[in-house]
């Protein structure tokens, strides 16, 4: 009986594989289910862990290892070694240094998968959860349906922190079903979808004309935000897929580093604001979420300006809010009257101190930076 069950399982798996092969063979070439782009810049010390966490997914995926002009180590050589060892899965791509955004652009240009996900080279995936998610996406696709955006949880894997903070979305999204924005529930304050959470349909990103700016940090917010008005069908899996590593001193999300790059934070902030007339986005629940996202990013820009204690950064903050008022008045009115908008615009030095105190409490609770 056990032998029969085992043989039946093998038979069923083979049938699924044949269906899969037939479904994904286009012009004689085997199409991947998910393309994973890994932007790498002097990443030799940790990129292996990232790549190895995806390899168990096998030939249904491709891993695009994009070397962004590394000069201090052998990142490109490591990428080529993986390509040689796993030629049907890994592809090493070299480009002149263009920054994280350009590496994502290159990954998207080279992607052959139906879906596309970015995994930073110092982060990693839970391999078992990845296999579960791969099965869900495969089954949806074989049923003849598709989704625009797949969302899963991520873990703030902060060095020295025993209890890791998990960003989950069970309060905001229905679980394990295809749904639309009108089915969305309510996001909590400080809760939003990051790059670590998302797997986008590749064609949607291309049709949306997604191109991230070169030599700019914090473009992951643009990657998530810009395609949202094009998303119609979503799927949420309440599993912890992505491990977001926090702890390197040179990491872009290190607070000191962020303050030193505030010009780029403000650039991304402005690009998000100008990407569309968010006050006209439909349906209403998507519009409200996108405004919340803008509020959070603008709050980060404003708080870091205050924390820097530099006049030039305070002037950037003032210019951003004035720009909102002049060019996007309905949005400014909405954001300025919100809890976050009021919090970062408290008057005087006492107001600034209260803002920083609130920021520190939020950071302790959410575990970022």
Can you walk through the features of this model?
It is globular, with a radius of gyration of 22 Å. It has helices at 2-24, 47-54, 75-85, 99-110, 127-142, 202-207, 220-225, 255-260, 262-274, 284-308, 311-327, 329-336, 339-343, 348-366, and strands spanning 25-26, 29-30, 34-40, 61-68, 90-95, 115-118, 124-125, 149-158, 165-167, 178-179, 198-201, 234-246. It has 14 helices and 12 strands. Mean pLDDT is 87; it is low at 1-13, 15-23 and 365-369. Strands 3, 4, 5, 6, 7, 8, 9, 10, 11 and 12 form a 10-stranded mixed beta sheet that branches. Helix 9 packs parallel to helix 11 (311-327). The protein is of the alpha/beta class and 369 residues long.
Give a nutshell description of this structure.
Helix content is 47%, strand content 17%. With 369 residues, it is α/β, with parallel strands linked by helices.
What attributes characterize this protein structure?
single chain; 369 residues; two-stranded antiparallel ribbon; 12 strands
Gyration radius (Cα, Å) is 22 Å
Summing up helix and strand content along with how strands pair, one would put the structural category as alpha/beta
Distance N to C terminus = 55 Å
Overall form:
globular
The percent of residues in helical segments reads 40-55%
Q: Low-confidence spans: pLDDT under 50, at least 5 residues?
A: 1-13, 15-23, 365-369
Q: Average pLDDT, to the nearest integer?
A: 87
* Main sheet summary: 10 strands, mixed
Q: Which sequence of SSEs, written as H and E, runs from N to C?
A: HEEEHEHEHEEHEEEEHHEHHHHHHH
Oligomeric category: single chain
What's the number of helices? 14
């Amino acid at each position: 009986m056990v032998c029969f069950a085992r043989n039946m399982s093998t038979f069923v798996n083979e049938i699924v594989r044949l269906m899969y092969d037939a479904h994904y063979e286009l012009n004689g070439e085997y199409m991947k289910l998910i393309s994973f782009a890994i932007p790498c810049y002097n990443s030799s010390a940790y990129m292996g862990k990232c790549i190895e966490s995806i390899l168990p997914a096998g030939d249904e995926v491709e891993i695009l290892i994009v070397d962004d002009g590394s000069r201090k180590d052998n990142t490109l050589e490591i990428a080529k070694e993986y390509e040689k060892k796993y030629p049907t899965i890994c592809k090493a791509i070299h480009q002149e240094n263009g920054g994280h955004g350009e590496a994502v652009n290159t990954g998207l240009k080279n992607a052959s998968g139906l879906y596309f996900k970015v995994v930073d080279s110092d982060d990693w995936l839970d391999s078992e959860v990845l296999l579960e998610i791969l099965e869900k996406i495969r089954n949806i696709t074989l049923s003849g349906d598709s989704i625009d955006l797949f969302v899963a949880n991520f873990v703030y894997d902060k060095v020295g922190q025993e209890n890791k903070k998990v960003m989950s979305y069970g309060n905001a999204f229905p679980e394990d079903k295809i749904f639309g924005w009108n089915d969305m529930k309510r996001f909590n304050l400080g809760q939003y979808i990051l790059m670590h959470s998302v797997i986008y349909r590749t064609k949607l990103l291309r049709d949306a004309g997604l191109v991230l700016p070169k030599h700019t940090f914090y473009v992951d917010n643009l990657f998530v935000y810009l395609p949202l008005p094009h998303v119609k069908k979503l799927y949420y899996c309440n599993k912890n897929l992505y491990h977001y590593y926090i702890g390197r001193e040179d990491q872009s999300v290190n607070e000191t580093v962020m303050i030193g790059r505030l010009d780029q934070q403000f650039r991304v902030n402005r690009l998000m604001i100008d990407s569309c007339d968010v006050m006209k986005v439909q349906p209403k629940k998507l519009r409200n979420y996108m405004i919340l996202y803008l509020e959070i990013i603008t709050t980060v820009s404003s708080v870091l300006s205050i924390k820097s204690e530099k006049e030039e950064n305070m002037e950037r903050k003032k210019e951003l809010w004035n720009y909102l008022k002049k060019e996007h008045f309905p949005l400014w009115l909405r954001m300025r009257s919100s809890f976050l908008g009021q919090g970062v615009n408290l008057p005087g030095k006492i107001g600034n101190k209260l803002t920083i105190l609130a920021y520190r409490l939020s950071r302790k609770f959410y575990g970022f930076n």
